[in-house]
Structures are given as structure tokens and as C-alpha cells.
Amino acid sequence: MSLEGVVAVTTVVTAFITVPATLVAAHWTRRSMDRAADAAVAVGLGQSEAAVQAARLQGRAGREHALESERRAAYTRLLCAADLLVRTVRELPAVPHESRKALLDQKVTGVVEAQAGVAVLGPPSLTARARDVLEQSLGLEKLALRRAVLRAAVSALETHWCPRDAEVCEDPQHGSAFVAWELLSQWGSLEDEERWAQLDFLGFTLRESRALTAEQVDQVLDVANSVACWDLMMGGWVRDPLLERFQAVRDEFARAARGSQENFAVRAGGRGETCDPRSDDLGPRIPGRTRGTET
Cα(161)–Cα(173) distance, rounded to whole angstroms? Predict the structure, then answer.
């Protein structure tokens, strides 16, 4: 075979060998690229799923925080409404008689509306205590107007006692003021027959004391016809059982509300989140009175 023939054969063989090698290299290159693409897609999918999960957790945490914020606002509204009602009841004897009912209705309505907010948002333990606050508020409403009449009368009678030595005082107005005050203090403990017998005398001493107007005397006598919860309305020199009972229920709700917020703070902290319930700001306490007959 000539040299040209050998060269031709070699060229052909080399071509046959080179083409498959090139094809194989291209195949493995494409396969590697596909694997890299698949890996990139897998990584992307994993990152996307992680991002979606993180967004879900963040969204749920945000909703929980928003709900707790709304609950806390509802608890505060109820406590403030209850405190405003108590303050109004304390001040009612100093309010003109014709304005008392409208003012009382306004404050009681505030408690009713605030309790409804807790009923919608709060957990069962809090909604039950909120109902207790509402029940106490409605009970206070039933007695508040009669209580105001008695407290205003008692306060006026006390200011008309003898400013000097009551034991030797001969001023009929001073004596009548003290006798009327004493009758009112004992009125709830008298028997029915004794009260009827003393009713005219009570009216006489009230008028003779010159401490009350004729309209106020009539109001006191009207209240004196019913002795239901008389001792609660009258109170005492130091204690005020009616408002003490209300305050106890109010404070129980406040403690439960603070506990609920603190529990949420613990749960939130467990997820690495932060929550400041500021439990001390859930509502102010109303200072106690030093005398049961003060307004």
C-alpha cells in the first residue's frame, strides 16, 4: 500500500474514534449540567419551602400578637369602665338629683359595652370573670340612686350637728339633725311595725333639722319605705361593704387578665419572640374611702 493510502486509512480511523469520544464527552457534559440544574432546582425548592414556612410562622405569630393586643385593650376598657362607674357612684350624692340617673345610665352602658368586647375576644376564664363584673355593675346600678339619696341626706345632717358640745346643746335644729341621723343609721334593723310608727317622726326630725330641702325630705322618706339592702347603702364610718364587694370582683378580673397576658409572654418567649404585656397598666384601682358616709 502506498503512503497516501496509509494516510487516508489513518485519517478515517482517527475520525471514527474522535467522533464517539466527542459524543461521549458531550453526553457527560450535558448530564453534569442537568444534574447541576436539578440540584439548583432542589435547593431553590427547599429555600422556597423554608421561606413559605417562615412566612406562615411569622404570620401566625403576628396574628397572635395582634389578638393579644386586642384582648389587652378590651380588658383595659372593661377595667376603666368599671372604675368610672364606681367613681360615679361615689360622687353621685353630690350630683343634682335630676342629673343622677342619666349619668349613672351612661357609666353602666360603658361597662355593658366593654364586657361585650371581652366576651368576643377573651378566653372562657376571662369572659366568665367579665360577666361577674357586669353582674356587680348591674347590682350597683339598682342601689346607686337610692344610695345617693341616703348618702346626701346623711352628709347634710352631719354638717348640721352641733359644732360645739352636742351633749349640752339646746339648739333644736342641731338635736333634730342628730336624731334624724341616728334614725337613718338604725332604720334597716327596725321591725316593720316600728318603722311605720317612726316614719312620721323621721320626717319631722328631717324637716326640723333644716339640713334638707322639702324635696330632699320627700326623697328620703320615699327611700325609707323600702329597707332592702339598707345596710349596704348606708355603709359605715370606715367600711363601705357595697363597693368593697364590687372592688373584689373587679380586682379578681384584673388579676386573671394579668395572668393571661403573662402566660402569653412566656409562650412568645419560647419561640424566641418578645411580648410586653405591661400587666400593671391593665387598669387603675379606685382609692378606698376613709368614711362610709363620705361622698
Answer: 8
SS3 assignment, position 84: helix
Map residue 160 onto helix, strand or coil: coil
> Could you write out the three-class secondary structure of 182-220?
HHHHHHHHCCHHHHHHHHHHHHHHHHHCCCCCHHHHHHH
Q: Are residues 250 and 133 in contact, defined by beta-carbon separation less than 8 angstroms?
A: yes
Q: What is the DSSP letter of 281?
A: G
Q: What angle do CA 91, 126, 61 make, to 5 degrees?
A: 120
Query: DSSP label at 94?
Result: G
Phi, psi (rounded to 5 degrees) for 148: -60, -40
What type of residue is 103? L
What pLDDT does 78 receive?
A: 95
**Start-end of H helices in the chain:** 3-91, 97-121, 124-159, 172-186, 192-208, 214-224, 230-234, 241-270
Please report where in the chains the cell 352602658 appears, as a residue.
109
pLDDT digits (tens, 9 = 90+) for 270-295: 443 332 333 334 544 433 433 334 43
- Which is nearest to 257 in space by CA: 136, 156, 118, 67? 118
pLDDT at residue 115 in the model: 94
Nearest-CA neighbor of 133 among 104, 112, 147, 105?
A: 112
Per-residue pLDDT tens digits for 77-107: 999 999 999 999 999 999 999 999 999 999 9
